[in-house]
Fold this protein.
Amino acid sequence: MTTFTVWAPRASQVELTIGTRRIAMSPRGDGWWKVEEPSAAPGTDYGFALDGSPPLPDPRSPWQPAGVHGPSRVLDHGAFTWSDARWQPPPLAAAVIYELHVGTFTGAGTFEAVVDRLDHLVSLGVTHVELMPVVEFPGARGWGYDGVDLFAPHHACGGPVGLKRLVDACHGRGLAVIVDVVFNHLGPAGNYVGRFGPYFTDRYRTPWGEAVNLDAAESDEVRRFLCDNALMWLRDYHMDGLRIDAVHAMLDRSATHVLEQLAAEVRALEAHLGRHLVLIAESDLNDPRLVQAPVAGGYGLDAQWNEDYHHALHALLTGERQGYYADFGGMPDVATALREGFVYAGRRSAYRRRRHGRAATGLGGQRFVGCLQNHDQVGNRARGERMSQLVGPGRLMIGAALVLTAPFVPMLFQGEEWGARTPFQYFTDHDDPALGAAVRDGRRREFAAFGWNPEEVPDPQAPETFERSRLDWSEPAREPHASLLAWHRDLIRLRRAQAALSDGRMDLVRVDWDQPAGWVRIERGALTVAVNLGARRQPVPLGQERPRRPLLASSPEIAFEPTGIALPPDSVAVLGP
């Protein structure tokens, strides 16, 4: 016996479909329909027909074994045997996050294949694995941000059981798991939920399609849909947290924003489970209210990605100034981010042509996730170049040091730790030729505006675009990758050993620099991070509390001098007492 329910407030008739059978469902109020079917059990394929329509997938389908256009399948979450009963993730303040894309992390591109590489992550020293979206999206390859079945892990990656095995294996090796969820829009292909009810609204528009209905008529059930989805990942898949994509596009003018509602429900689940759960937002608003407590007018999330720190670091190390990098000019902006969180906290942005952001007064660094690379900042380049293709090994080591010694929660993107040379490009697998062509042409038009030859922009639909983006696991064993990997391991080990590096007090960070000379000095308690980005060997002045020895150095050619520590070009040293 299986009970089926579905929200379809505008339908006059709803039928459960199993094979060729159509079974009438009964209205139970508030737009919900229900039926109990004795013949259905876990593994049964089904759909819903609205007013005599062909069968459609369940909006809350737990499993889509044939993809977005196929039938849904009944799943028993209680059938999986977990081995993590005593698992407790480390606190976010102590985290080192590793973002990965399941499809390109390994050659097989499955949840099970990720398990085979977990020992690498453990030896690296990371604490949290962050999975890019894993829900059902069109085709077999994609980034996952065009998902349409939000409750169903992607069939090509291994489906529900494969994902549970991955999470269980991570916990067994001491790794927490965060999953990326997209609540601001659904993808264009296989998006059937709008036929069931007012899941979308024309009051707003997102850059990626219809906005989700969070504050218009009948939005209560849409909000319930999103909150139930979030709780499912944390409860049924034992996830330790969620990274919520582009919350600035979750347009909601309700008195209680849906993010505040979601955070409150997650806190209640956390108390019930007795396990720490975290919520991390991606936002381009520079709004501290996301992570402030509701009693202070905030939404109560745990942290947010710090795009300003990424942009400031990227501009400093590469010298790029196009697009939004035009707002960032080198060492002063890196210093501002380290000491205040946001670079743009109410000052005018030349790129936006207006004031941007709000001061993060009173917030600690553990409220921000800082990185040198992530899927967006690599994959949204025309050819998906990584930092390893933009700067030399010395600057890669400097970038790693500035991320892993910062007061923020550090994050690495897959392969960054060894300076992977494989790009991470934008790829899709739409079965509709017209949609595939539209995606390809739209991307090429976008980059043509920046002077790119359209033919040089990889076709997202081409299988080779996806194949180029797979990590090459032979790289870490050879130079210069092996040395860079060892450098990341040493930095993470040092972060663990030195309490000053995990202290999120940004007001205790001191930064001095000489932009023309190219040096910067960052003081974290008794530790000093000295950086030379100049073209010649030069001394970096040291503060009054002179550190006596190098704890880590990217070059053996360093020496203490009366005026400071002498560093060769493009090098960094972490000094201690």
